[in-house]
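Researcher: We're teaching a course module on how sequence relates to structure. For the next exercise, students receive a sequence and then see the predicted structure as tokens, so they can try to spot secondary structure elements on their own. Here is the exercise chain.
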Amino acid sequence: MSSEPHPLDVVAPAQIARLVEDVALRKVQLPFVQTLTLGVLAGAFIAFGAMFFTLVITGSELGFGPTRLLGGMAFSLGLVLVIIGGAELFTGNSLIVLGLADGRVSLAQLLRNWGIVYLGNLIGGVATAILVHLSGILDMSGGAVGVTAVAISDAKLALDPLQAFARAILCNVLVCLAVWMCFAAHSVSGKVLVILFPITAFVALGFEHSVANMYMIPVAMLHAGVIDMGPALQNLAVVTAGNVVGGGVLVGLVYWLVYLRAD
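Model: And here is the predicted structure for the students to work with:
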């Protein structure tokens, strides 16, 4: 009899917690170059999702809700590439907090991983923004795609810090739940499906994702020809902090308390 799990079998949440912890331990032990390279890939992958989102919502006459829904589905491409293709994403790695809480990962290991992955994500996002700018694809539809890209960035930079922080918390709850649920799926199609709904929801609802912003804000600045680092860095700092709280505390730490904490 085959020992392979049936595609319809679902891994129980308690088992997922152990799997996440085991993966966290492997992540923090990866060599520097491998971690950085996988981080660069993740930054580029999320940028692909963001540029697809920008294109899809441009010129839509479906109405606000349906347009956001369709755009969110398009953005899901980013996390699908990260999970299926294999890459290191800062927001998803917030779940390493679970290993820290259980004593299997040290604080130094956690911060090292986050630092290298964050740098890699930033390089990937900004490099992709430069390539998109040079490619001229923002001039599609008579320049309408570029107008959309600038409008998206302007809306992000106009957020009150408290709003951005709250939206970032909510964002990474959904992102980390999508990553968490991928451990329950045995097939590629199953993983894609569990990614689709949470990611579509966070994008449609206008939540804030730090790695997406590493692409969306620079590409808009390049297109507009105005480089203003102050507001961009403030947005990134606030959103990053919110993402850590959302994924690390409200998902990783909560599930540790539920499933792994010793009585």
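Model: If you want an answer key for the exercise: The chain is about 75% helix and 0% strand. The chain has a mean pLDDT of 94.
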